[in-house]
Amino acid sequence: xxxxxxxxxxxIVFLLAMIKVGALTESFPHSANSGSKPQVHFRYIPNDGxxxxxxxxxxxxxxxxxxxxxxxSINGSNSLPGGTNIPMAKFYLSGYYYQGIYGFxxxxxxxYLKKIKxxxxxxxxxxxxLQIGQSSPYFGLENSASDNALTxxxxxxxxxxxxxxxxxxxxxxxxxxxxxxxxxxxxxxIGSHTxxxxxxxxxxxxxxxxxxxxxxVLDIGGSLWQQGTDNDQQVSFSAMPEVQPLNxxxxxxxxxxxxxxxxxxxxxxxxxxxxxxxxxxEYFKSWVERTQNLSTLSFSGFYATANYxxxxxxxxxxxxxxxxxxxxxxxxxxGAWQIAVRYSTLDLNxxxxxxxxxxxxxxxLNWYLNQHVELxxxxxxxxxxxxxxxxxxxxxxxxxxxxxxF
Length: 406
What we know:
Blueprint lengths: L6 H14 L21 E4 L3 E5 L5 E17 L7 E15 L2 E8 L8 E9 L3 E8 L21 H5 L5 E9 L3 E8 L14 E8 L3 E2 L2 E13 L9 E2 L12 E2 L6 E15 L2 E14 L6 E13 L5 E4 L4 E5 L8 E15 L2 E16 L4 E12 L8 E13 L1
Antiparallel strand pairs: 1-2, 2-3, 3-4, 3-23, 4-5, 5-6, 6-7, 7-8, 8-9, 9-10, 10-12, 11-12, 12-15, 13-14, 15-16, 16-17, 17-20, 18-19, 20-21, 21-22, 22-23
């Protein structure tokens, strides 16, 4: 299969049309409010963090910190050691100055220059914003969610394999009452080393959300991603078994795919919230276009999940950005309790590339002690049929995570 159509011209047409539409009525976050002057410079708002705002309301700085600490027992594969781990220790700073916006995040648990996640500035209009710098381009639903809004310890298998990372580039977002579009054009992240041609990527995400109030959400959308390679013409896809082993090992991995000129990914997403119940799912398809008359490779995966709050809360959805940012305020002194299940599968086998096929079944129990502290418990039954070495493996994983968010 051969793809030659870029997502960039199509995305620009959508965005310009939406910015010009007179029915635009909902604004992107972080725009200055010129209304009544705040009486307190510092305040704390759950899900938003510690906020400083000047008297005129023309400048704001929001600071957050998120710590995740895991413990896991992984049975069924000697190559995936369990134990204790800190997958994330992340500081966030974001805000606005008049109509300008900025963002910075730093993850102390990451390696070297990968510690720098967001580093951008931008400008907002009433129903659109432009962002320049390093960030994670919008692609799919779960990958776009806030770090503290995940229902399980890790992303689903196909999200781990087919998600954008943090990259330097330009992003443009626009919305109407019910329709939101995000477009990004980007190159490598800060500190990356490339050979020859700079690999350029483009993403386009569109979301239709006819309702998005607390307790009532519908999200239907799709994403496209086109990615070039540098002169090495290499790409690879892999996924951890929905928990992070100490060695970050995997059961399914394509290894290095050579002669890869470009690769393309498509995504379909769905999410619905009805009071305390939330369900969502995504389907992913990827194509790797190769040189030297080698056949185009195709990989795929999908997941479906459902969760329910036993204590009456619901998942909190942000529109127009189109992703989950946490939960609604906790109703009881003993906290909020949530049960969840997930099915996910990832197939990395095609033609001469046999990266394996894995299916995971996950059950979760989450206890939100308050808006700052969460305990997560996951049981994962994983089946690799086969793994990337051609062997059948069965995993039984017991894992827990402590999450602190301020």
